[in-house]
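Task card 7
Instruction: Convert sequence to structure tokens.
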Amino acid sequence: MISGFGQLLFALFGPLSISRSALFGIFLTVLLNNSYTVLALKSPFLPRHGGSLGSTAKDSVIKYKTLYFDQKIDHFGFHQDGTFKQRYLVNDEHWYKDGGPILFYTGNEGDITWFCNNTGFMWDVAEELKAMLVFAEHRYYGESLPFGKDSYRDPKHLNYLSSEQALADFAVLIKYLKRTVSGCQFSPVIAIGGSYGGMLSAWMRMKYPNVVVGALSASAPIWQFPDMVPCGDFYKIVTQDFTRSGLNCAANIRQSWKSIDNISVTEEGLRWLSSQFTLCSPLKKTDVSDFKAWLQETWVNLAMVDYPYEANFLQPLPRWPVQVVCTFLRFDPKTVSDHLMLVGISDAVRVYYNYTGNVPCLNLSSTATGSLGYIGWYYQACTEMVMPMCTDGVQDMFEPQEWNFQAFSDECLALFGVRPRADWANTVYGGLDIASHSNIVFSNGGLDPWSGGGVTRNISDSVVAIVIPDGAHHLDLRYNNEYDPQSVLSARAQEVEYFKLWIQQAKRKG
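Output:
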């Protein structure tokens, strides 16, 4: 079964009625202007766009130079010899300009300035390590567009959007810096990244050990691929977060889906839901599945950013936001009425969408910051980033939904004219077999649903795991904060000690 956009496009145009290029243009127009849900393509790292730039209290003191490098569009073929401007940010105020280390952030699926502002750990340790900081933007995101404004106008232009091409970009850029920046020739480089960027940092060390001496891979689900981890682990962890954060919290969310079904069967019920949730557009019967998907995404986002202090990584939120949400969901799920249940759910989601009290209405197409490149990630999910997800409604608090690779593949073909290669990440990056590598630290938070696909046990003496029981999504990469739990402070201290060890090793070899 083809869902969301695939259904819409096939209904409008049929599979053969217009060219792939024209179909793709229509898809982008629809994607940018409507709130349809692509269930199979829903970005694992990218909630739907909207909201404000995630910032920190230290934004005002962050200073960097914005630079551009002429990067090859295709590193692995010889027919396409074009170049594009890859953006990167540099801060060298603490750098020891005679072989001091370089902390190199492997950019994610979005605007690099956003990741720069939200990776306070690098800024906090730069002086101690006498390090240069470099934040490199991932191709096809932010300003680093290989075909300029046409990069997303034709699916053929997206052919060069892949993690392998991005890793080659980073390697070539590092080689360029070492060749052209005075004092940089013998600087050991440590790759750092979180989430997809964390996957890239680990893979950077695996694929280019001659370029980077080590890697910190934070909240990186390098095993969230077919036949590596159970497809339901992600949503189980989300559910565990809500279960331990408040009495009956997860149970009531599980029950709420039936309450939505019961209320939405009538026009009066739809009007009540629209009013109770202060939706920007009134719900119609055809919107109910989108409404549920929006709620599901909200609960996932809250688990990801369940930080111990006020933050606005995806939305402005209070300390321990899941605990705050759960204060509205203490009912006895066996006796609560459908209306009272959904009053509690509506109060709970306002913690996420309207903590500031300044939002006039809630938009089903907006769940997080607009600094992330959701269209590009859809393409990556349709090619090499095949990450199975499923729910069963028993071990998790969501409605049952199986993982259907064929439906997923068919939708990708309809949208982009490509089919995913389910086993490619296993083939090119080694899958579960990574013991032959060295100098990689994998950090994962116990509250982070992405830890289900992460490395949470030591693989060898130098491929090690740090688990942060009180940590949400890459909490260790954020700035030090007075409310940080001891577990994340200890994790950061261990990470710095590994950095120092790798730097010493590199100097001995040099």
